[in-house]
Design goal:
The structure holds two protein chains of two kinds. By secondary structure, chain A is an alpha+beta fold. Chain A contains six helices and four strands. Chain A has two domains: about 55 residues, no CATH class; about 70 residues, no CATH class. In chain B, strand 11, helix 5 and strand 12 form a beta-alpha-beta unit. The mean pLDDT of chain B is about 90. Classes of the chains: A alpha+beta, B alpha/beta. Strand 4 of chain A pairs antiparallel with strand 1 of chain B, so a sheet runs across the interface.
Chain lengths: ~130, ~525
């Protein structure tokens, strides 16, 4: 039940209603139906939905070292153009386990151009592992 | 790492071309009991295989140590994401993990190199004999052959079990259900049928696939050993989804088995597949469906439980000559509770199949084995495939046994019976004895025909009931030794000619003279 209310709240806000007004409207509806006690659970469900939405729109560029970021952005440009994303919207993260290269992930897309992936591919092909 | 692997890696590096293709991905939001909820993957399709990315954040050395990729099978498409069953160790899947779409539906390895091997529900070898070299991949889900591609059942599939071959004959391409309570010999009937295929000439011998679903590993190991010892493993494949396997694999195993079989059928060969058992598959599918939050129906089974079995069993067929003339004969097994055949799953499968053989606990306990209740067992299409020789001798057995069962009930009350009734009872008793058979000892067609012919000629009427089975065995051995030509003639022509009948009559006379001690009392 709380998920449905949370979805409705999210939709109201997305359509341009101010958060304060949307919550007020929701509160009124809950009072009218005698479901005021649901409010804290609706709050938690809303937080979950918001987190999922944020994750969906997030675009993360992972590089092995900070110094690789610029080159990685240059190389990832084609994908960014496809996704209609300005490189300023990118969140850049450093992950030493990549060894080198870069990895772009988000909006249901993954481009892995890291050395780790290349090396693992070679290893798997050589050893016959899937 | 050995030198050969290093060499291979060097070669791979030399010819390596880095690819930076964009992959379609999602993210695991929850994991539990073999089922995962995934956010994203909006372009995924039903039944698609996904890969869980375990290596994220791991160092290269650790990533190299990981076993094969963990796969998932998409079973629900939802508004915000998808739900998938994990085909492997769920403990390796974690929340937040990246899930890659493959764009492929599940396939299993098939081909001649699978013969004699034991594989899991994903077609991977689990018998320690190493990977397959050049398997052909077959889709696990495939549309069953259409009407135009099929022909009717007309070639017999000999089970080697007298009661079945005589009264419930099975044809190649048929689906004959084996149903009964636990411990009534369902698996034995199926395994004996596999063993009997050794009696078939190599070119006509069907490939046998035994699919173990939710069985004890010890039972599957015993069956494998039995097949190996009998030399039957060389034309058999075992697909094993034991009780310890995840529900998803138990649900998939029969589909994997039939997919393997379809490779041979498409190549124009005959296949016999045993699903042991579909009740356990239904339970695994129920578990999976409930975890996927699909609405439960009767006995908490999902609404598509009938479709699960019908789409599986419809893949058994006999293809037309234009399509190569191959076939898949299915022997699904269903376990009943307390003999209740009116349960949900039993009635579903009864209605799908082309006949059923009921195994009854009472008969089993009376020592009548195989414990088939011939009164309620039926083969709807098999009679068209029965050999002329068997038809000639088996015609009246079912009626004779039905009359015997009726009279047997009266016999307990009546003190004196007229001669005709008494004769019928005596003859019925002996027929029951003739139809008894040890497990693991299938009998070739010509010997079955000879034994039943002798029984029809009241040959055993003078033999005490308790000795009939032994005398029958002696008689068959006598025929094998002294009248091999007659048996060979029946085998070759699959007919019982007047000449053969004369020979058999002569053989019976000779046997009676040679062994008068067995015919002493009446």
């Amino acid at each position: 039940m709380e998920n449905e209310y949370a979805h409705a709240l999210a939709e109201m806000i997305e359509k341009g209603m101010s958060p304060a007004k949307a919550v007020g409207e929701l509160h009124k509806t809950l009072l009218a139906h005698g479901r005021e006690a649901l409010l804290p659970r609706i709050g938690r469900a809303f937080a979950r939905i918001a987190a999922r939405k944020r994750l969906k729109s997030e675009l993360r560029l992972t590089v092995a070292t900070e110094g690789d970021a610029r080159q990685a952005e240059r190389e990832a440009k084609a994908t960014l153009t496809d996704l209609d994303v300005d490189s300023a919207d990118l969140e850049t993260v450093v992950d030493g386990s990549l060894i080198g290269g870069w990895r772009l992930e988000g909006r249901e897309r993954l481009v892995d151009a890291s050395y780790k992936k290349y090396l693992l591919d070679i290893y798997h092909r050589a050893t016959g592992a899937v | 790492m050995d030198a050969a692997t290093v060499q291979k890696i060097v070669r791979e590096i030399e010819k390596f071309v880095p690819a930076t293709e964009s992959e379609h991905v999602g993210r695991v939001v929850s994991v539990g009991d073999g089922v995962v909820a995934i956010d994203g993957l909006s372009k995924a399709v039903m039944g698609e295989i996904v890969h869980f990315e375990e290596n994220k954040g791991k160092k290269l050395a650790d990533a190299m140590k990981d076993g094969g990729a963990i796969q998932g099978l998409i079973l629900n498409l939802e508004e915000d994401g998808v739900m998938a069953a994990v085909l492997g160790d769920t403990a390796r899947v974690q929340e937040g993990m990246t899930v890659k779409s493959t764009g492929k539906i599940l396939e299993v390895a098939s081909g001649d190199e699978l013969l004699g091997r034991v594989v899991n529900a994903l077609g991977e070898p689990i018998d320690g004999k190493g990977p397959f070299k050049k398997p052909t991949m077959m889709p696990v889900e495939r549309q069953a052959s259409g009407v135009i591609d099929r022909q009717s059942v007309s070639v017999p599939l000999q089970t080697g079990i007298k009661a079945i071959d005589a009264m419930i004959p099975i044809g190649r391409g048929q689906r004959e259900l084996i149903i009964g309570d636990r411990g009534t010999g369902k698996t034995t009937v199926a395994i004996d049928t596999i063993l009997n295929q050794k009696n078939e000439p190599k070119e006509r011998r069907p490939i046998c696939i035994y699919v173990a679903i939710g069985q004890k590993e010890s039972k599957t190991a015993r069956i494998t050993q039995q097949l190996r010892e009998a030399g039957a493993l060389e034309y058999s494949i075992i697909v094993d989804a034991p009780a310890s396997a995840p529900a998803a694999l138990q649900f998939l195993a029969p589909f994997a088995g039939v997919a393997i079989g379809e490779y041979f059928m498409d190549a124009g060969r005959d296949v016999l597949i045993v699903y042991d058992d579909l009740s356990k598959q239904a339970v695994a599918y129920r578990q999976l469906s409930l975890l996927l939050r699909r609405p439960p129906g009767r006995e908490a089974y999902p609404g598509d439980i009938f479709y699960l079995h019908s789409r599986l069993l419809e893949r058994s067929a006999r293809l037309s000559e234009e399509k190569g003339g191959g076939s898949i004969t299915a022997l699904p097994i269903i376990e009943t509770q307390e003999g209740d055949v009116s349960g949900y799953i039993p009635t579903n499968v009864i209605s799908i199949t082309d006949g059923q053989m009921f195994l009854i606990t009472d008969l089993f306990n009376k020592g009548i084995r195989p414990a088939i209740d011939v009164g309620i067992s039926v083969s709807r299409v098999g009679s068209a495939a029965q050999t002329k020789a068997m038809k000639a001798v088996a015609g009246g057995i079912k009626l004779e046994l039905a009359q015997f069962r009726e009279l047997e009930a009266f016999m307990q009350f009546a003190s004196d019976l007229d001669k005709e009734t008494a004769d019928r009872i005596e003859s019925g008793r002996r027929m029951v004895e003739v139809l008894k058979q040890k497990n693991g000892a299938p009998i070739p067609l010509e010997k079955q025909v000879a034994a039943i012919y002798a029984a029809n000629q009241k040959f055993f009427l003078a033999v005490p009931v308790g000795k009939v089975t032994a005398v029958e065995q002696l008689f068959v051995d006598f025929l094998d030794a002294q009248h091999k030509k007659t048996l060979d003639e029946i085998k070759k022509s699959a007919q019982l000619s007047d000449e053969s009948k004369k020979d058999l009559n002569k053989a019976m006379e000779e046997f009676r003279l040679a062994h008068p001690e067995h015919f002493a009392s009446k």
